[in-house]
């Protein structure tokens, strides 16, 4: 096959995976929230309501797509794509296994952070162009939360990069092979403070409920997505869920050993490595969804002070501590 | 412990995960139905004898007792003083289900039914005719001749004087 065809097929595979994830995660969210409420959730369409989201997507596809009168038409049309395309681009570098990756960039982690920082831009465009106060407030909150989470998130990922010595995502996964003291898998989750900081910053990033200020259903109708309907809304909604998936996949890659299983030789699980990666990712998503269903939304000032007064200094300090430990450990190992 | 920063988060997560293990408390309504409480009651329903004849004697006690004036019984009386019920109209949509008509009935002929799926697509279906064109019951004569002797043939129907569907009757609602 020609290289161009391979690239196109890989791109389509990533797109298909993204859509599939969106459908599965919406169904999963409804089911998880239902179990938290001691309900059953959707039950009617398909076994245990499994086709419910399929019908929802069909409804979104066939719905009328009105454009409100006073919107900024160009931006209103572009905004869903500005939100959607970065999510899709971030899928390109996720390492599902040592061979299953669309593009194994040497700076994959940096690439993910770079493209994901476009998303608040699209959200701001959506909120601004909607000519709606709720949309605008939601968009401003999204931008405000971006300046809150972005720096702590990068700094929380930095200890992992220092430990692995590479920015390549598959390189980071490979650095987590083996065990510590013959028992504990050498996953970077052992670096607990970095893990916690990254998870909290990432929860702000993915807009899950304790930090879903940009959507804030009870305050802002639907935030930046208020004026959107039909498949434009579908794109916004889908990219929101795919952000959650990307963030969970990043947690798995950086901290939970990626596609690897502990104690088992790599040749055994290599054929099902992508399955392991997906299972781990969906486990992280499940935990995030239970958090989402449990904790109430924080106020704007609470989120900002959490980001600036807690996450930022803590992650800076932890970068320094990790660096010291690595340096001192290296010196000690060299002296021995 | 409760003063530790973040302890509330852990506690709420513990409660949430415990909830996930509990059985659902909801019913899958159209497929599963709750067993009704013994004294539950919804709309007014007629009672019938075992042979299918209505127990209503058309005494109009329920019509007088109804505070909402939603029961309208249209009868004619034959020469042998037996009554014939042409319509037993009941405006379910306006009924507040107080049960006063059931308490007023001297012949135990109506009851508060247990059908709770009372939603209708067309508002006109909310006015129902519980009895149409049947002879009124005659408890005394029925007791005398337990042999199945039906009342005599119907006289030509004649509307009761002063009956109007949309006007409150006035007078007897103090």
How is this structure best summarized?
The complex is a heterodimer of chains A (336) and B (174). With 336 residues, chain A is mostly helical. Chain A has helices spanning 3-36, 52-62, 73-92, 108-116, 119-129, 133-164, 169-174, 192-206, 217-220, 230-255, 266-269, 273-294, 300-335; strands at residues 179-180, 184-185.
N- and C-termini, Cα separation of chain B:
66 Å
- Strands of the widest sheet of chain A, in order across it, are 1-2
Mean pLDDT across residues of chain A? 84
The SSE string of chain B, one letter per element, is HEHEEHEEH
CATH architecture of the domain at 44-144 in chain B: 2-Layer Sandwich
Helix-strand topology string of chain A: HHHHHHHEEHHHHHH
The interface involving the most residues is between: A-B, 14 and 14 residues
The computed structural class of chain A is mainly alpha
Strand content of chain A: under 5%
Low-pLDDT ranges of chain B: 162-174
Helical/strand content category of chain B: alpha+beta
| Individual helix count of chain A | 13
| Level-1 CATH class name of the domain at 44-144 in chain B | Alpha Beta
How many individual domains of chain A? 2
């Amino acid at each position: 096959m020609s290289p161009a065809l391979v690239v196109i097929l890989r791109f389509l595979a990533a797109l298909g995976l993204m859509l599939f994830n969106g459908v599965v995660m919406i169904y999963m969210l409804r089911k998880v929230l239902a179990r938290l409420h001691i309900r059953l959730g959707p039950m009617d369409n398909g076994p245990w309501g499994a086709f419910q989201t399929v019908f929802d997507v069909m409804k979104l596809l066939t719905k009328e797509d009105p454009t409100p009168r006073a919107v900024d038409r160009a931006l209103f049309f572009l905004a869903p794509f500005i939100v959607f395309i970065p999510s899709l681009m971030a899928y390109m570098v996720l390492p599902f296994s040592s061979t299953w990756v669309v593009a194994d960039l040497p700076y994959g982690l940096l690439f993910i952070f770079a493209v994901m920082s476009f998303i608040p831009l699209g959200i701001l465009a959506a909120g601004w162009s909607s000519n709606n106060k709720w949309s605008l407030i939601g968009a401003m909150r999204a931008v405000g939360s971006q300046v809150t989470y972005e720096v702590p998130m990068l700094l929380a990922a930095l200890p992992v990069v220092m430990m692995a010595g590479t920015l390549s995502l598959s390189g980071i996964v490979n650095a987590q092979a083996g065990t510590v003291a013959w028992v504990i898998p050498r996953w970077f989750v052992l670096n607990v403070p970095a893990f916690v900081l990254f998870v909290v910053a990432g929860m702000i990033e993915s807009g899950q409920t304790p930090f879903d200020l940009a959507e804030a259903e009870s305050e802002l109708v639907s935030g930046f997505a208020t004026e959107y309907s039909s498949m434009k809304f579908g794109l916004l909604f889908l990219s929101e869920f795919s952000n959650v998936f990307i963030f969970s996949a990043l947690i798995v890659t950086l901290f939970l050993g990626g596609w690897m299983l502990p104690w088992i030789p790599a040749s055994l699980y290599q054929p099902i490595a992508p399955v392991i990666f997906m299972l781990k990712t969906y486990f992280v998503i499940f935990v995030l969804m239970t958090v989402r269903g449990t904790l109430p939304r924080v106020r704007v000032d609470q989120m900002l002070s959490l980001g600036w007064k807690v996450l930022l200094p803590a992650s800076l300090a932890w970068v320094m501590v990790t660096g010291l430990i690595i340096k001192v450990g290296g010196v000690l190992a060299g002296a021995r | 412990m409760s003063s530790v920063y973040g302890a509330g988060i852990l506690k709420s997560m513990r409660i949430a995960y415990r909830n996930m293990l509990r059985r659902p408390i909801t019913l899958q309504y159209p497929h599963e139905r709750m067993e009704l409480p013994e004294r539950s009651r919804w709309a007014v329903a007629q009672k019938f004898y075992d042979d299918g004849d209505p127990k209503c004697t058309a005494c109009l006690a329920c019509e007088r007792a109804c505070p909402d004036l939603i029961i309208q019984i249209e009868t004619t009386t034959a020469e042998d003083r037996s009554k014939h019920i042409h319509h037993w109209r009941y405006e379910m949509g306006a009924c507040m289900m107080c049960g006063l008509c059931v308490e007023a009935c001297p012949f135990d002929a109506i009851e508060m039914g247990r059908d709770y799926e009372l939603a209708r697509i067309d508002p006109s279906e909310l006015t129902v005719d519980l009895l149409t064109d049947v002879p009124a019951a005659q408890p005394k004569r029925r007791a005398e001749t337990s042999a199945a002797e039906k009342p005599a043939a119907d006289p030509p129907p004649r509307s009761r004087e002063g009956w109007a569907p949309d006007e409150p009757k006035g007078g007897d609602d103090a």
